[in-house]
Amino acid sequence: xxxxxxxxxxxxxxxxxxxxxxxxxxxxxxxxxxxxxxxxxxxxxxxxxx
Length: 50
Description:
mainly alpha, 0% strand
């Protein structure tokens, strides 16, 4: 695909690169993200790194 044809291609025709999706349960992402943050904070505290 040339630069000119890539610019003219509709979004649905472009190759997906594995980035974030535009749809899906956003609440699940938030819950998992905050769970990771809390677990990481507990680990850092228990190991005495802070």
